[in-house]
From TrEMBL:
UniProt keyword annotation of Lipid metabolism present: yes
One GO term of the biological process aspect: long-chain fatty acid metabolic process
UniProt-recorded Gene Ontology molecular function terms: acyl-CoA oxidase activity; FAD binding; fatty acid binding
Source species: Morus notabilis
GO CC field: peroxisome
Protein name listed in UniProt: Acyl-coenzyme A oxidase
Length: 665
């Protein structure tokens, strides 16, 4: 097969230093070097092959995933990889499996909620993978409403133990990843009941599920997989599980006791910390999901951009070549805002990581003041970025026309793997309602002179923002960060204030929350979009080296903001932040920005530095050699192993003969 770069011409048009942009995308030169090394390590190892995933029956698929996870662990030990390198290796192995829950939830939960003693006991076992853990919170009948969980942990003072029990079918644990077939231990969320029969609400407990000798469930434990999920391959590599307890006894010291304790005498002691810290692992994971959203979106956009540059339709003159579909304004209008969103989510993810680290340090110093904001930001941005990413993967599939529907485009499996992100770690609507509560609380405190800080600081300028009108007079006026910020702040303020005013008409606030939920969600979305826009603008204040790099990011930042403005025109115009004329100028400016993105589009997706292995897409191949490889791939399908298919003699031949006989009659 010829070895040419079909996209070389596209790459030669780039007006910026791609190698420097790769470093901006990775976050630092060090991060770039680690990701680059780990992605190549995985790509060159045949055990991490994944092109056959959608064709394997579940049992084979699952066994193969176990093999890969074991191999990944072997390589991590052999190469003495650091924690950072190991996590990148797992990321590029690119197959959801139990290790994500072990490292991503079980270990962080013990770190966050365990006492020093408990950490000393459990963490070394978990670090060496001598035990494998999962996070068992959700139940068959209860997911979003954590306070509604039914599993009980009743203290027995006679034996100094907790008795873990599933009182109803609805209380069966349902969904935890890694639980179905692998985990030996789980962090189990259960209602704490002490001798006085008082219910102290949900707490976390470490429970051993399976024998460390023969992997059989321990007495009183019923455990299994919940069954096949959406799509082929995809998330079916994960053993999401079900779990029931029949009066299972665990020692008292297996309740995670950093936040609250039960003494030997059965006394409940609450440390001087907010009870919401028991939800801390969810805050941590939501923050990582935002960073993951930019990766998944970038992956889909990389495939759609490269393919749009390869694909040609219409426009041939005098027998010449047809037009590259990326040159159609409609294609640009659908694709370039997604490219801009990938960068926007990357930077907001970076900032959220900083916010999370900051709040963690404050918590250690017993400063809980920024916890509500950290909760609102992680919940809101998790919701916003995963919703957009899930929708955008599907849009990228459509941008690739018919070929996008082929498994080998990589997009169907990416979609199937990604969409549950809108549900797990908090349903996206439920999370936006949390943001709305936070906003309503902030607005209600304004009259008392309380100065909002952090991401709600803009609400402190409520009087100005309720009245301001954009000064834009010509299209280029939109290319000004303060002009853009002001309209996003004004829109978010006006939507929040309108909700607060409507809420005040209800005698009972909770009734108002139920009735106005749809408006509240819109106000929360406006607030979250403002955060993303403002963090992109803040990123551009940094010193960013490399020829043309900052200019490209500036263009993408305006594409991101002006496209949002266009999509939510109703909000911006109805709240009087901008006039219809200014909206139309924003649209003119957006079109002209697309022309600036166009020559750089392929280089901008090259900057993600994804290997062909990670992309697993024929349409997104680095060399753009799409048609020969699609043709080759078709012949690899098991259906093409024989010229005449199995079933011909039973079903096709008799049918044809019957039709022939009927015709003769
Ligand atoms: C092609 C192949 C590609 C392969 C790719 C492979 C890679 C794939 C990508 C994989 C990436 C990641 C892997 C992820 C694995 C997924 C694992 C999933 C795990 C889970 O889902 S675990 C279960 C998660 N469950 C939830 O999130 C439940 C959601 N519900 C809640 O959080 C709460 O119930 C609630 C917040 C909705 C309500 O809380 P509640 O206490 O009942 O009520 P309120 O009265 O509303 O709140 C009281 C006050 O508490 C504040 N609060 C609430 N939550 C928090 C918090 N977390 N932190 C701080 N404060 C909080 C709330 O604001 C209230 O405050 P106030 O009193 O108003 O001041
Ligand atoms: C792939 C996958 C992996 C998972 N992994 C884990 C895991 O490892 N551990 C674990 O414990 N759990 C896990 N979960 C469970 C997950 O956390 C829950 O599914 C999630 O929290 C949503 O809860 P739910 O399923 O109860 O949805 P529900 O709350 O029943 O939502 C159903 C519908 O009701 C709406 N709704 C619910 N409440 C409200 C409200 N107050 N106001 C307005 N609308 C509302 C929602 O928006 C949604 O449209 C996983 C789930 C999936 C899909």
């Amino acid at each position: 097969m010829e070895d040419v770069d079909h996209l070389a011409h596209e790459r030669s048009k780039a007006q910026f230093d791609v190698e420097e942009m790769k470093i901006v995308w990775a976050g630092s030169r060090h991060a770039f070097e680690v990701t680059d090394r780990m992605s190549r390590l995985v790509a060159s190892d045949p055990i991490f092959r994944k092109d056959n995933r959608t064709l394997l029956p579940r049992k084979e698929l699952f066994k193969n995933t176990l093999r890969k996870a074991a191999h990944a662990w072997k390589r991590i030990i052999e190469l003495r990889l650091t924690e950072e390198e190991a996590s990148k290796l797992r990321f590029f192995a690119d197959e959801p499996n139990f290790t994500e829950l072990h490292w991503g939830m079980f270990v962080p939960f013990i770190k966050g909620q365990g006492t020093d003693e408990q950490q000393k006991k459990w963490l070394p076992l978990a670090y060496k993978m001598q035990i494998i853990g999962c996070y068992a919170q959700t139940e068959l009948g209860h997911g979003s409403n954590v306070q509604g969980l039914e599993t009980t942990a009743t203290f027995d003072p006679l034996t100094d133990e907790f008795v873990i029990h599933s009182p109803t079918l609805a209380s069966s644990k349902w969904w935890p990843g890694g639980l179905g077939k692998v985990s030996t231990h789980a962090v189990v969320f259960a209602r704490l009941i002490i001798t006085d029969d008082r219910d102290y609400g949900v707490h976390g407990f470490i429970v051993q599920l399976r024998s460390l000798d023969d992997h059989l469930p321990l007495p009183g434990i019923t455990v299994g997989d919940i069954g096949n999920k959406f799509g082929s391959g995809a998330y079916n590599t994960m053993d999401n599980g079900l779990l029931r307890f029949d009066n299972v006894r665990i020692p008292r010291d297996q309740m995670l006791m950093r936040i609250s304790q039960v003494t030997r005498e059965g006394k409940y002691v609450q440390s001087n910390v907010p009870r919401q810290l028991v939800y801390g692992t969810m805050v941590y994971v939501r923050q990582t999901i935002v960073a993951d959203a930019s990766c998944a979106l970038a992956r889909a956009v990389c495939i759609a951009t490269r393919y749009s540059a390869v694909r040609r339709q219409f426009g041939s003159q005098n027998g010449g070549v047809e037009t590259q579909v990326i040159d159609y304004k409609t294609q640009q209008n659908r694709l370039f805002p997604l490219l801009a969103s990938a960068y926007a989510f990357r930077f907001v993810g970076e900032w959220l990581k900083w916010l999370y680290t900051d709040v963690t340090q404050r918590l250690q110093a017993k400063d809980f003041s920024t916890l509500p904001e950290a909760h609102a930001c992680t919940a809101g941005l998790k919701s916003l970025t995963t919703t957009v990413t899930a929708d955008s993967i599907e849009e990228c599939r459509k941008l690739c026309g018919g070929h996008g529907y082929l498994s080998c485009s990589g997009l169907p499996e990416l979609f199937a793997v990604y969409i549950p992100a809108c549900t797990y770690e908090g349903d996206n609507v439920v999370l936006l309602l949390q943001v709305a509560r936070f906003l309503m609380k902030t607005v209600s405190q304004l009259p008392s002179g309380m100065k909002p800080v952090g991401t709600t600081a803009y609400l402190g300028r409520v009087e100005d923002l309720m009245q301001c009108h954009s000064t834009v007079k010509k299209a280029e006026d939109w290319l000004n960060p303060s002009v853009v910020l002001e309209v996003f702040e004004a829109r978010a303020t006006r939507l929040s204030v309108a909700c607060a005013q409507n809420l005040s008409k209800f005698a009972k606030q909770e009734e108002g929350f139920l009735e106005l939920a749809a408006d509240l969600v819109e106000a929360a979305v406006a607030h979250c979009q403002l955060i993303v826009v403002s963090k992109f603008i803040e990123k551009l204040q940094e010193d960013i080296p490399g020829k043309g790099v900052k200019e490209q990011l500036q263009t993408l930042c305006y594409v991101y903001a002006l496209n949002l403005l266009h999509k939510h025109l109703g909000d911006f115009v109805a709240t009087g932040c901008i006039t219809p004329k200014q909206a139309s100028l924003a649209n003119d400016q957006l079109r002209s920005l697309y022309s600036q993105v166009r020559p750089n589009a392929v280089a901008l997706v090259d900057s993600f530095n994804y290997t062909d292995h990670y992309l697993s897409s024929i349409l997104g191949r680095y060399d753009g050699n799409v048609y020969p490889k699609l043709y080759e791939e078709a012949w690899k399908d098991p259906l093409n192993e024989s010229v005449v298919p199995d079933g011909y003699h039973e079903y096709i031949r008799p049918l044809l003969k019957q039709q022939l006989r009927n015709a003769r009659l």
